[in-house]
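@channel anyone free to eyeball this complex?
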Amino acid sequence: MKLALQRCCTTPIFLKQYETSTDAILGQLGVQLTDEALNCCGYPLKNYNYKAHVLASARNLSIAEERKVNIMTFCNCCYGTLIW
Amino acid sequence: MVFDISLYLSLMIFALGLIFKISTWFRYNFESTTIPFTARERFFAAMGGIVVTLFSGRVLTLLKSLLLDVFCQRRIMRESPLRWVMHLCLFWGFTLLLLMHALEGILTSNFFPDYAATLNPFLFLRNFFGFLVFVGIGIAFYRRFIQKAPRFSTNAMDRYVLILLAVIMISGLFLEAAKIVSFERYSQMVTDYADFDEEQDLKALEALWVKDFGVVSPNLTAPFDKELLTRGRELNEMNCAACHSRPQWAFISYGAASILRPAALPLDRSGLVTLLWTIHFLTCFVGLAYLPFSRMFHMLASPLNLLANSVVEKGKSHPANIITLQMMALDACTHCGSCTSRCSLAVVFEEIPNPNILPSEKIASLKALTSGKPLSEHQMAVIQEGLYLCTNCYRCTTVCPAGINLQELWFDVREAVLKRGYPELLVLTQFSMYRGLLSTRVPKADYHQAQKQPMTGIEAACSALSNPDDPIKAAQMDKDFKKQMLSSAKGSTFSYCFTCITCTSGCPVVGSYENPREALGMTPHQIIRTIALGLPDLAFRSRMLWYCLGCYQCQDACPQGVQVTDVMTELKNLAVARMKNPNRQAGERS
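replying in thread with the prediction:
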């Protein structure tokens, strides 16, 4: 299985263990991760500029669509934004 | 005469510019009120740091960084192989041209006693180095004007530098080409160096030079007879060969010479060689004088920054050196755009057209900020917004080919700018989560002050009904605001509210205060009511709206299906729009 991992902006910096454990477990499960150039999910913009918030995620979704992969994320906020 | 005057003039401007620019590394800082170190202290701290480093084991780290980062430029290699080829060509081509060709009188002729510019290997090498620079300029031109990566901006200075470089190189190339074909130069050399004066001998040498060396003669044309050439070859061996290799070795210039050949005689007589020489040295001197003031200054600042970064460490090094290094880093930026191409939030620029969102453009604003130039309130607000619209993902720092620690720069500048007292609404959004994580580094008073500022700003801008004793008049109802909320699928759910207070009862923010009304201004159900009443100011300035965590417990619990959290989100968007443009009605969107 192939997945695009939304690595989140802050989690890999401030909560490194999320990223390392995700990589380790998915590696064991044989899930292939494609390294797409995804940007911020837009979550922090939600309360500031709604359109920009949607735009950021829309770009990620369209990249995933183009490459025909699903997006997975280990961040609560990215997840909340993507399932919108 | 002109050469000497312009040389010394440009050297003087260069030296003064250099001193000025380097002095800014010690004089400038981000703070506007408190100056942590004087320029003198910072200068001596830097000198002390350098001496200590040079006499410690860290000198090996420094050497490793010099080899890999400066000479091999591995950071650019990681970024893009094409750019690496481009930059290596420019860096090595130009450096070697400078050392071997421009400084021939000082360096090359001292190291190689039989040096002559027209002798191999120098003749060939000069062309080879020039060729490298041409390849570099070609790739640079291709990237900027043909490939056109998104958000890769080319400013006026980028153009000047590219044009200046191109003029220097092309004038140099054609200067050599014009000298190859020049009959006047040939005659002059014969007068100066030939130790014979029989007419037949002169003719023989000229024939050889026309045939083998590319000189265009008004007297002779090919074909020549064999004996004449044999005699010419002998004379050449005796008189010229000590200083002249075959010009074919100057492979680019010889190619350019063949372009000049058809028009060589009239061009030569009209003084093309002198003209090109004048253009060549003048543009070189203009470049030299302009260097400290342009992005070309990164030639000095970037290697220094890479080297300093390899040994300076936050927390261990003298704090004064950290500030100095950050000021130097601003000059090390080459405006290459790597950071912007990877920025997590660059996409947002399409919706919020503030160039300060893009890291490569932020640097330019920071330069203005540190120089102490007076900035208007609007300019400050724009810079501050750009500084804050950042998810702190460190991608810019990871990719910067000049090794600038951009993320740390943003952290420090943000705090310094917030201290200037302009309210920043983004402090009230999720963008400020990092501030909590870094709160140990920020003085407590400053930390809380930055959070109070935007609240005070909102209270001032949305002040209707601030006296609880005033009666609410029907005319105060903002119908546009209500209409706006009703027109949105999620926002319109406010109308289902029957004030059961379930949302407020379940709210963890409300629950963490002893006296929520005093601490938060309004509780969630009251905020929903303000929409029904058409009183946006009451909602906008209530702290509840901004302290909301977005946990959705209220929305989950609402028996009426009011999308409480989403309604609050819309309210915050409207408040931001109002704050950005106070004249706008509450209901209007951007």
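from a first look: The domain at 476-580 of chain B is CATH 1.10.1060.10 (Fumarate Reductase Iron-sulfur Protein; Chain B, domain 2).
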